[in-house]
Description:
It contains eleven helices and no strands. It is mainly alpha-helical and 279 residues long. The chain has a single domain (37-263), classed as MetI-like (MetI-like fold, Orthogonal Bundle). The chain is elongated and about 75 Å long. 38% of the residues are buried.
Amino acid sequence: MEEKKRIWRTFRKNKIAVVGMVMTIMVGLVAILAPVLSPYSPVDQDVLNQYDPPGGVHLFGTDNYGRDVMSRIIWASRISLTVGFFSVALGMFMGSLAGVIAGYAGGWVEGLIMRVVDIGLSFPTLVMGLVIMAVLGSGLDKLVIAIGIAMAPRFARIAHGPTLSIREESYIEAARAIGARPTRILLRHIVPNLLGEVLVMATLWIATAIRIEANLSFIGLGVSPPTPSWGNMVRAGVNHLIMAPWMSLLPGAAILITVLSFNMIGDGIRDIADPKLQG
């Protein structure tokens, strides 16, 4: 109980993190309540109302097909948050598993796994995601897989370091002495001790995953139209910036607000994880 109070007290002192948490909750509610909040269908076309400026019955205006921009932004929030959470979860699972196995096994197993990780780290996450999407093709499930694989090496590096020190602890030696299997040692003793640090980084990297999804959708390797995503909405509006700037600017603002809110929460989580602030 005292630990929970300390965590909340440290987080609450960081006003930026609190604002970020409020913003993130609002974005999450928009995604959850999309069927209720959306005034129109995100895919229905109305050629008689093309390029309607913001205001009136279309609060955010319409696009080149007469579709309501506000409705498309609201529904696109589901895509971005889905990709953000599930891709990070996939990357965390694969990367952490590889890092823990490498750290505990040592020897040639560690050398092989960590060299593969080093190769993955040598590529920017966006570039690796781009290459994987080029192989897999477009689609929401493939987008989650691509970003998850691209982020896995970073989680592997984070999990590997603590595992090297934890495996030398006396309670690990005691578990080996009584005949505990490696799987039991990993799941009962090593993973719980590094899970907190991995989860902290996972929270920070959700914003990165959302940004990568927008970038891939922008270049046509994300979610296929007419399904709305913030990235493909920005791309669709590029050719109409003079006539209808709201087509790109408003979904771009949605990306900015969402990424900023997660980064602001990350600032508070860093405070919680900082040993200097744990007193």
